[in-house]
């Protein structure tokens, strides 16, 4: 599933530059993750870098509104980064 930034976000600016898919942007009051771009870093890293750098525990969670298998996340990675080779 894609990830979700909760209201615990303190806008520390740590997550946005770490996202290899450019899925994180500033929303109206906190950062937001675009589920169409989030692959939970599959294809890039072993774990989501936004979760790793976030200084507040449980601020970034798996989004229950966007469940996806690892295979679906991999397919999304391929489309985002290798669509010109398909």
What does this structure look like?
The structure is a single chain. The protein is α+β, with helices and mostly antiparallel strands and 86 residues long. The chain has a single domain (3-85), classed as Alpha-Beta Plaits, CATH 3.30.70.20. Helix content is 21%, strand content 14%. The chain is built from two helices and four strands; from the N terminus they run E-E-E-H-E-H. It has helices at residues 49-53, 70-82; strands at residues 3-5, 24-26, 31-33, 60-62. Strands 1-4 form a two-stranded antiparallel sheet. The protein is globular. InterPro entries: 4Fe4S_Fe-S-bd, 4Fe4S_Fe_S_CS, PSI_iron-sulfur_center, YfhL-like.
Can you tell me the CATH architecture? 2-Layer Sandwich
Question: Counting H and I runs of at least 4 residues, what is the number of helices?
Answer: 2
Biggest β-sheet description: 2 strands, antiparallel
Separation of the first and last Cα atoms? 23 Å
- The helix/strand class is alpha+beta
H and E string? EEEHEH
A few lines on this structure:
The longest helix has 13 residues, at 70-82. This protein has one domain: Alpha-Beta Plaits (2-Layer Sandwich).
Topology:
Elements: E1 3-5, E2 24-26, E3 31-33, H1 49-53, E4 60-62, H2 70-82
Antiparallel strand pairs: 1-4, 2-3
Write out key terms for the chains shown:
transport; two-stranded antiparallel sheet; metal-binding; alpha+beta; 4Fe4S_Fe-S-bd; Alpha-Beta Plaits; 4Fe-4S dicluster protein; 14% strand
